[in-house]
Amino acid sequence: MNTKRQTAGEISKKLSQDTTRYDASEIGHAMAEGIDEHLYQAVANYKDIIDEDEFCVVMLVGKDNLIQNVIRRKFYCWPFLPKPRPNQAVFLYNKNIDNIQKRLWVLPSDMVMAELASLGPVHKRYKTMQAWSKAFFDGKFWDYIRQEHSIDMLSEHEYFLKHRDEFIKSGGNLTDGPCIEEFDFSKIQLKNVIDTKDLVHS
Predict the structure, then answer these.
(1) Is 126 inside a domain boundary?
(2) Cα separations in angstroms, 187 against 32, 135, 190
(3) Which of 90, 138, 150, 156 could form a disulfide with 104 if both were Cys (CB 3.0 to 4.6 A apart)?
(4) pLDDT of residue 146
């Protein structure tokens, strides 16, 4: 029996007519399901290119530019700690044991980051994410991540400074990977955050 497969546009139209309210944490867990395969596929694509024993595997979540309600996930790797940004998850891979050792951080949307950073006590499920968000807005993100995970990996800027002469001699350009624009946090308005009561520990 042949069943016509729905297009992304058809699915998007159906979703736009759905008035059900979904819990943000449930959506987050659903999006994280089955990412192992994609993380290790990214590792396979990059591990022969990156000449480091350890490197970061990044998952970036974003909306589709053309189709409403469609969320896309992009996976790639960097030999340094990538710049933190909303809707980003970063993991640490070790070549010697061929394994993703740990999750370094997971940052939510821009508005949720701002809300978490401005709140007092929150439910225990949000404590770690709140600490990451506060470290980001306090300008101490790298220090916090290194201390939390007992690592000394360089940030992107530090990595380029360390290897500057090598890059100049070889003409190499590590920015051949996905080009990620800097996020403008001046766009954040806390009043736009929906259901913030779900974040606060009652």
Answers:
(1) yes
(2) 26, 19, 10
(3) 90
(4) 96
- In tens, the pLDDT along 138-180 reads 999 999 999 999 999 999 889 888 888 776 776 655 444 444 4
Query: Which tokens belong to 13?
Result: 């139209």
Query: Strands (DSSP E) along 18-79, which ranges?
Result: 54-63, 71-78
Q: Is residue 5 part of a domain?
A: no
Specify if 8 maps to a domain: no
Give CB contacts under 8 A, 24+ apart, made by 151-154.
151/92, 151/104, 153/54, 153/56, 153/80, 153/81, 153/92, 154/80, 154/81
Q: Per-residue pLDDT tens for 51-66?
A: 999 999 999 887 655 5
Task: Kindly give, in sequence order, each residue whose CB lies less than 8 Å from that of residue 167, ignoring residues fewer than 6 positions away.
Answer: 160, 173, 174
Structural domains in the chain (count) = 1
| Confidence (pTM) | 0.69
